[in-house]
Amino acid sequence: MIYVIGIGPGSYETMTHEAISAIENSDVIVGYKTYINLIEDLINGKEIVSNGMKQEIDRVKKAIEISKTGKIVSVISSGDAGVYGMAGLVLEMSEDEDVRVISGVTASTAAASVLGAPLMHDFCHISLSDLLTPLELIYKRVELASEGDFVICLYNPKSNGRPHYLEKAFDIMKKYKNSSTPVGIVKNATRENQEVHICTLDTINYELVDMLSIVIVGNSSTYIKDGKIITRRGYQL
Amino acid sequence: MIYVIGIGPGSYETMTHEAISAIENSDVIVGYKTYINLIEDLINGKEIVSNGMKQEIDRVKKAIEISKTGKIVSVISSGDAGVYGMAGLVLEMSEDEDVRVISGVTASTAAASVLGAPLMHDFCHISLSDLLTPLELIYKRVELASEGDFVICLYNPKSNGRPHYLEKAFDIMKKYKNSSTPVGIVKNATRENQEVHICTLDTINYELVDMLSIVIVGNSSTYIKDGKIITRRGYQL
Question: What is its EC number (chains A, B) (predicted)?
Answer without folding.
Answer: 2.1.1.131
